[in-house]
## 1
Amino acid sequence: MNAPSSINQLHARRLGLLSQHEAVALVHVDCPICRSEGVSAHSRVTLTSGGKSIIATLYQVSADWLATNTIGLSETAWTGLGLDDKGEVTVTHSPPVLSLSFVRQRIFDDGLNERQISSIVRDIVSGAYSDIHLAAFVTAISARPLSDGEVTSLTRAMIETGDQTEWDEKTVVDKHCVGGLPGNRTTPIVVAIVAAHGLLIPKTSSRAITSPAGTADTMEVLTRVDLSGDEMRKVVRQTGGCFVWGDGVGFSPADTDIIRVERALNFDAPGTMVASVLSKKIAAGSTHIVIDMPVGPTAKVKNVVEARQLSNVFDTVASAFGIHLRIEITDGSQPVGRGIGPALEARDVLAVLGNEPNAPADLLEKSCVLAGAILELAGIAQPGEGKSMAEDTIANGKAWAKFLAICDAQGGLRELPEAKYKRPIYAPFNGRVASINNRKLARAAKLAGAPDDKAAGLDLKVRLGDQVCQGEALFVLHTETIGELTYVLDYVHANPDIIELTH
C-alpha cells in the first residue's frame, strides 16, 4: 500500500463499527499523527476527505490488525465523509468548542441568554459535541428547569438550525401528546379524521424516548415512515396528512441528538419537551396545535398543578411564535387502548378506524375528543360540536378511507407481526382493579422487547374498577425470545403493584 501524501493523511478503512450517531475513528498507537498532532485516546479530531469534514472521537489500538498509516472508521464516520471503497483522510485537531463554557455556566450559574443557547445548539448540530458533552448539556437543563425565556430561545435555535416548510394554506394543524401514558395511540386516528375534513396536518412524530412505543414506532409497523422532506410534502399535498418519523425530514436536527441522550439517561425534562414539540411543529409550518396532556399519579404529569405549570410554558412559547394553541388535559390514571408496544398499539388503531366491534372504546373516545378540538380550533366545527363531527367521520368510514390513502401514498399498508411467545399474568384472587401503574406497565413492555421488537409488549385485559376472578388474565406478555420472557416475568413477579386488586 502506498504511503499517504502527507503526514496528516491516512488510508481510510471501513470497520463496520456501529456507534449509533457518534462518529468514531481508530488509529494505531504508533500512528504518525499521534505524535505530529499530539492527539491521544478520546481526542476530538476533524476528519476531511474530498471536501467533506466531520468531527469524530479518536481511539487508539495497540494490535497489529490496524496499520500505522491507516485510520479505521465507524459507519457513521464513513458515511459522513461520503467515502466509497477507499480514500485518504486528513486528520487534524478540532478547534475548541467555546460554547461548552456556556454549558458549565448553566450547571453553576443562573441561566443562559439567547445568544449562548444559539451557540450551543449550532455546535450540537455541527457535530462538535461528543456524547459526553451532550450528556452534560442535557443534565444541566434537566436538573435545574429551564426558564420560559430559555425554552423560547432553545425553541428558536432548534428551528433556525434545521429545515423549515411553508404551505400555501393559512391554517395548518397538528397534534401532540406530552406522553407518559402507555398505549394512547390517538395520533394516527386524529390525523385520519382531520385530513378527511380537508385540513392540512403534516404530522411528524418521534420514536419512543422513555416509553414502549412512539407514534413513529407504531406507524412503522403499518407503513413506511422514514420519508425525506420532499417525500413528506408530496404525501401531504396528495392526501392532506402524513405519518412521518421526524428525524428523516430535517426539522429541528438538534432535537434528535438531545432526545437520543435523554433516552439513554431516562430523562424527559419539561423545558426540553416543550422546545422539542413546538420547534418541530413550527418548522413543519403548523399554525394551530392541540396538545394532549394526560394527568395521573403514574403519568408524566402527575397532578393539575403540574399540568397548569406546563400549560403556561407551552402557552408562553407558542405565543412568542404566533401559534394558536389549545391544551386538552385528559385522564392519565390508566393506559388508553389495550395494546402497549408498536404492533399491539397498531392493532388497536386499525380496530378503531375500521369500526370493529371489539375496538377499544376509550381509544375511540379520546381520539374523537382530540380531533374535535382541532376541528374547533381551526374553525371547521362550532365550539362543542367537534367531537360529534369526529365520531361521524369514523362511523361513515371517511377516516378509514383517508388513513388507507395516506398509508398507500407512503408505500402501502403492511401486515401486523405477531410475537412468538405469549404469557398471561393472572389475578391472584377475586377482587376489583383498584390501580394500574402506568410506569411499571411501560417498564414491563420495554423489558419484553418493545419498541425494538415490533411485536413485543403487553396486551391489557382489564380497566380500573373492573371485577375480576382468581385466575382471570390481567394482561398478556408478548415477547420474541424466551430470555426476554423470563426477564420480564421476573420483573412482573417482583412488582405485584403493577395492577393492584382490592377484595
## 2
Amino acid sequence: MAYSAEFKDSNPEGHVGYSVYSSTGYFDNFYLRPITMENASGYINELNLNSAKPSTVIGSIYRLHLEDTTNGKAFFSLSKFGKIIDTSVGSEGDTVSLRFENGDEAVNFKVNQVFDAEDNSAVWLEEIISASTDDLNIGVDEISINPSYYQEEDMEIRFLVKNKGLISYSGTPEIVIRTDGDSETINPELVLDANGSEQFNVVLKAPENPGSHTLTISIDPKYMTIEKSMDYHVRALNPGVTTISTDLQEDNGIRGTVSIGSPFPTELVDWNTTAVVKVYKVVDYGKKEIYSKDIPVTGATFNIDLRYNEFYRGDGQYVVSVETGGMQDSDLFEIVGEDFAYVPTGDEMPPTILTGELYPKLMMLLIGMVAAVSVRNHMQKMTRSLPLDVLALACGVGVLVAAFIRGGSDMVTTGIVLTGAGIGAAVVRRSDSSAGKMLMMDSHLHDFAGTLIVFASAAYIVLQVPEWSFFVVVGTLVGYYSALNMYRGR
C-alpha cells in the first residue's frame, strides 16, 4: 500500500519558512478490517472478559457482558441499566454483532479465543468496534441548603435529580447524601424523560464541630457515579463558657462591660442566654445578698448598668458578682454615698440572724410559744391540741400575705406549699377517720409539732422581712396564745 502527500507553505515577508512538496510511504503485511458500522465511534484492539471482570461499558449507558461459555462457544449480551437489549453467540474466529433497541448495530468484535471452565471462563476479543450512543446526562441540580446551621441541628436539604440528556431514564439509582457525622441513603424509583427532574427532601444532623463543612450528594445509576458538593458553616449556640471577665466601675451606680469566652472562635458562636448579676453587702460574718437581676446576653460582651437606688443599703463594701454558663467573676466596691452625686437614703443594711439583731427576737418568740403551751396545760386539766391541718393552712396564708405585701417569689412559693399542705391534710382528715384522729390527737407531742409549724413560719417571715420582726413576733405570740385558750375541740 502506498500513499502520497503534498504540503505547501508560503513564506510571509520577513519570516523564514519551508516547503514540503511530496512524500511516499510503504507498509508491509498491513491489514485493516473493513468498518461497515454506521456511526462508529469507539475502537479497542484487544479485550479480555472473564468471571472476575465479565463486562465492559459501551458508550455511556450500555454494557457488553459475557454470560457463559459452553463447548467452545461464548454467550454475550448487551444491556442498558441492567435490562438486556440483545444477545448473541460466537465461537473462536467468529465475528459477533449486537444491536440497540432500534435495530442499529451497537458493537461488533472478533472472538479470538474461548476458554471454557466451570469456575473460571474467559474470552479474548479483538478489534472491538462500537457505535456512538446518546449520552445520558443525569445528575444533581439545584441543591438548597441554608449557609449556616447550629451544632447538631436538623438540616433540611432539598435537591433535584435531573436528566439533562436526550434519552429517557428509568431505574432505581442509589443516592447518598452525606456530611461530617451523618449520612442518608435512598433508592428511589426514577422515571425521567429528557430534561425531566424530580425533587427530594432529606434531613441530616449538622456536625458537632463548628466551622466549615461540605455536603455531598452522589448518584450511582449502575454505570457511573455522579457527585455534587456545596459548603456550609456550623455555628455554636450558647456553648460552654470557658472564661468570664468583668470590667465594672462606680459611676452613679455600677456600670461596665463583661466579656465571656468559649472553646470556639468568636465568629462561629452565637449567644442568646442570660447572666445573673448579684450584689452582696459585706457584713461582720461574711456577705448578705441584697439584690439580683437577670441580664440578657446576646454577644461575647454585654453591659451592666445598676443604679444606686436598685441596690444601695448604706455606705460600706459591696460585692458585685456576674455569673453565666457556670462561670463567675466578682468585683469589690467601697461605696461612700456623700462622695458621689447620689445622696444616700439612710436605709440601713437589713439585719440577719448572723448579725445578732434578730437572734433575741426569735428566741423570745420560741420561749413565748413554749410558755403559752405550758400555761395552757397548767390552767386546763383537759387539754385540747390545735389541729395540725388548721395550723399549716393559717401559716401558709400568713406567708402569702407577707409575700404579696413585700414581694418575693421565694416567699410566694413557700406560702403556696404550706397552704397546699394544710388543705391536703384537711381533706385527708375528713375522708379518713384514722388520719383524722392523728391530726386531732391531744398530746404533748402534738402540741410540740404545732409549735414548730407556727414558729418556723413566723421565723421565716422575720428573716425575709426583718423590718417587720417586732410586729410579727408580738402578733404571733398573741394569736397563738389566744388560739390555745379559745380552742375547746369537739
## 3
Amino acid sequence: MSPSNRVESAVSDLFRRVEPVADDLGEVFAKRGHELALVGGPVRDVLLGRAGHDLDLTTDARPEQVLEIVRGWADAFWTIGIEFGTVGARKGDWQLEITTYRSEAYDPKSRKPEVRYGDTLEADLARRDFAVNAMAVRLPSHEFVDPHGGLRDLAGRVLRTPGTPEQSFGDDPLRMLRAARFASQLGFTVDEAAIDAMRDMAERIEIVSAERIQTELDKLICGPNPRAGLTLLVETGLAAHVLPELPKLRLEIDEHHRHKDVYEHTLIVLEQAIAQEAAGPDRVLRWAALLHDVGKPKTRKNEPGGRVSFHHHEVVGAQMAKRRLSELKFPKEVTNDVARLVELHLRFHGYGEGEWTDSAVRRYVRDADHLLDRLHKLTRADCTTRNKRKAAALSRTYDELEERIARLAEEEEIAKIRPELDGNEIQEILGIPPGPLVGRAYKFMMDIRMDEGMIGKEAAKERLLAWAAANG
C-alpha cells in the first residue's frame, strides 16, 4: 500500500470510530466561523493501530469562545487547564480536550510556561514536541495535515522535533522527559540530534515543576519498556536531575558479583517484576523494584577478601525512596507503600532453609500487611543470579514460604490477627486512660499473640498485669 493510500485508509478508520462526535463538533465550530482539527496523540495512535476514547482537538477559537460553543453541545464540560488554553468536554463515551492554537515558552527563571495564542493550525503544529505528534486532521473536511514528516517518522519509529531540538526543548524542557517516556510507551528511538540536545540542556529540566516531572516519570515507569526510557535518562544526564539515585547505582558492584553493577541488576529486577503483573502496570511494584537497592551507595563497605557489603541498605534505601517520591509529589499512600516494600525486600533471606517458626511467618505477613502479594513478586524478582541451581533453590524455598503463609492464613485468618485483649480491655484491667501507655501495652499483647498464638483471656490478663508491674 502506498503512503498516500495508507493515510487515507487510516483516516477513514479513525472516522469510522469517532463519528459522529468529531464531525458533529467540527460542523458546530464551522457554523460559528472557527476552525477545528483532530491533532496529536489520537492521530498518531490510529496510524499505529491503537484505539482510545480520548480526543485532542485544536482550534483558532479562544478558550472563552470554546466554552460558549461546547456549553450547549457537550454532556459535560470543565475548565481545569483553561489558563493554558484548554477546555475539557464529554460527549457520550468520548473525552475531549479542545485547545486554542498556541505557542508556549519558558522564562529561564520561571517554572510555568508562558502561553501565547496563535492563529493557524500550521503554526500550532510547529510548536509541538515531536513530528509524530504534529499531524492533524481538519474537521469536518478530513484533510490530513503533516508538515513535518510525522508519518515518515512513524514508519521509522523515531522521535524527532519539528524544528531544532534546542528550540523545542528550550520552549518546554519537559519535552526531554517526554522523549524518554515515549521510548518506554511506544518503543521509539530518539533522533541523535535530540539526544545531543538532551545532553547539552539537561540542567534546564530543573525549572520544571515537580508535579509535571512526576507525571512523565510515572508514565515512563508504567510503559511496556521502561528500561529504554530509563537508559535514555541516565545516558543523557537527565536522571542526575530528576532521579539521581539511579545513575549512582552504576558505580556500585553487587556483593554477589552477579552483574557488572547494581544499576543493571536493578533494571533486570524491574523487568522481572513486570513479568509477574497479572492485571496491567502496578506502579507501586514497579517503583519499589526500581528503588529497592538505592541505599547501596551509602552503605557500601569493602570487606576482607575483596568482598563488598551493603549492610542495612534496605533501611537506608527506604528512607531515600520516601524522600525522592515525596519530592516528586507522589501521593502519600504510594510513597509509603513503595518505601515499605524497599524496607522489607530482604526479609525473606532470613528464612534460610525454612527454619522460621510459625510466629516468624505471622510477623512476615503482618509486617507486609496489604503489600504481601507485591512483596512476594518483588522478592522473586530480586533473584537475578545466573546460577540456575541457586535460582531454582531460592524459588523452591519461597514456594514453601508462600505455602506456609497460605496454610496459616487458612487456619488462623492471619490477616485478621489481633491481641486477645483489645484497647478498652487493657484500659480497664490496668485502670489507665487512653494514651501512649495503652499503645505500648497493646504492642506487648500483640507480640504474645504472634509468638505464642491464643493463650486464653485469663492467661493474657495475667501476662498484662505482670508486664505492667515490671514496667512500673
